Amino acid sequence: MKFNREKEVEHLIERELKPDGITDERVLQALYRVKRERFIPQSLKDRAYGNYPLPIGENQTISQPYIVALMTQALDIKPSDKVLEIGTGSGYQAAILAELSSVVYSIERIESLSAYARTNLYSQGYNNVFLIVGDGSVGLPEYAPFDKIIVTAAAPRVPDPLFSQLKKGGKMAIPVGGRSVQDLQLIEKALNGRVYKSSLCGCRFVPLIGGEGWKD
Ligand code: SAM
Q: What spacing in Å lies between the alpha carbon of 88 and ligand 1's midpoint?
């Protein structure tokens, strides 16, 4: 059967995301607009709007749409926000963030994936995303502080450098736990300096490899 993007994306939004609590209209519209089929290998195009992760090479994955939507919704991205993403992968989550914020810095440790994301993003005009190759577990101090930080790989704990690079009043979404199973956490750094942590759901991310993450 011929790939019908509109039908597939509507099914994802109406049958999978909304019933599971994704209700923020801006997030849903971003999910509607960003073409997930442009961030995966061509051979998987027919599965672009399935609610599951897909392989993108180098043993890495593009995250499940529900998890992308849940993390984005929890971060409550504002149009003026400066966002830091750790784990560029395909560039799909960065594109969703770019739709909602002013500027996105995204770090990826695997050079070939960063190059893949660059092609995917720039060919579609996402010019407010800056891609960096390196160890994102230590953040990007030269551009800090950030309004929002999203970590799309599993960390053993919240990396101190990332927490320090979060603005007061800012939010961070991060999977924390073991190498294979984690708790998806929302960390809020209140204006008075207090820290609030909440759990969004259980999850399975690939490991964050680096100085403040797991060893390779
Ligand atoms: N956000 C991605 C997307 O939309 O396609 C999916 C990210 S994938 C689940 C996790 C990514 O984190 C992988 O590409 C992996 O190479 C990367 N990664 C792991 N440790 C990292 C680190 N210390 N710094 C930057 N990237 C890292």
A: 5
Burial of 11 (C-beta count, 10 Å sphere; 0-12/13-18/19+): middle
- The yes-or-no answer on residue 199 being catalytic is no
Pocket of ligand 1 (CB under 6 A): 60-63, 86-87, 89-90, 92-93, 107-110, 113, 135-137, 152-153, 205-206, 208-210, 213
**What average pLDDT score do residues 102-125 get?**
98
* Mean pLDDT score, 95-115: 98
Local confidence band at 196 (pLDDT 50, 70, 90 cut-offs): very high
For the chain, domains (ranges, CATH) are: 5-203 (3.40.50.150)
- Distance separating alpha carbons of residues 106 and 101, to the nearest angstrom: 13
